[in-house]
Specification:
The protein is mainly beta. The protein contains 2 helices and 11 strands; from the N terminus they run E-E-E-E-E-E-H-H-E-E-E-E-E. A 6-stranded antiparallel beta sheet has the order 6-7-8-9-10-11, with no helix packed on it. It has a 3-stranded antiparallel beta sheet with strand order 1-4-5, with no helix packed on it. It has a two-stranded antiparallel ribbon with strand order 2-3.
Length: 170
């Protein structure tokens, strides 16, 4: 969908024509999207700000997982996707430990997006809702395993240690 001024607001595409990213009306390549189909939303500034992407490939040796993920991204005026790409390029030649330390610093500064919500299947044919804090750490897990006994877990802030578990029926 295109506005009267020519601004692309919504792209709906198949696998062979899915667009790359865009930041402040500047298109950029996204090789990781060469095999996806879906929709891409663009905000008033011409920056991609969400979408729905389908990229499942049939493979009998891999467990099928489906779900919806909500990622929390920083304000693009404060730290844009372009800024993140520049930061990544600057770290590519660094040793692994230094690169990881740089990304940890970017996360601490709130400059890297984090997954906040997952709703979907698990590797073992269960179904889960996982909510994470602003740093992407899982904090609440509602799980219905394939066996059927639902579980609610509240997770500790600095680890995956379970703080509270509730089973139904009580």
């Amino acid at each position: 969908m295109i506005e009267l001024d020519g601004t692309v607001r919504l792209s709906i595409s198949n696998r062979s024509h899915f667009p790359g990213g865009c930041c402040q009306r500047i298109a950029n390549a996204r090789p990781d999207r060469r095999s996806v189909a879906g929709m891409r939303f663009v905000d008033d500034a011409g920056t991609e700000n969400g979408g729905l992407i389908q990229h499942r490939k049939l493979n009998a040796s891999v467990a099928t997982r489906t779900g919806v993920i909500v990622n929390d991204r920083p304000d693009p005026q404060r730290f844009s996707i372009h800024d993140l790409k520049v930061a990544i390029a600057q770290t590519e030649s660094l040793p692994v430990a230094e690169r990881e330390a740089r990304f940890a610093a970017l996360r601490d500064e709130g400059k890297v997006g984090e997954p906040r919500v997952y709703l979907g299947t698990t590797r073992h044919r269960g179904f889960a809702l996982m909510l994470s804090d602003a740093k992407g750490r899982a904090r609440l897990l509602l799980l219905v395993p394939a066996q059927g006994e639902p579980v609610l877990q509240l997770l500790a802030e600095h680890s995956l240690r379970v703080v509270t578990t509730c089973l139904w029926p009580p």
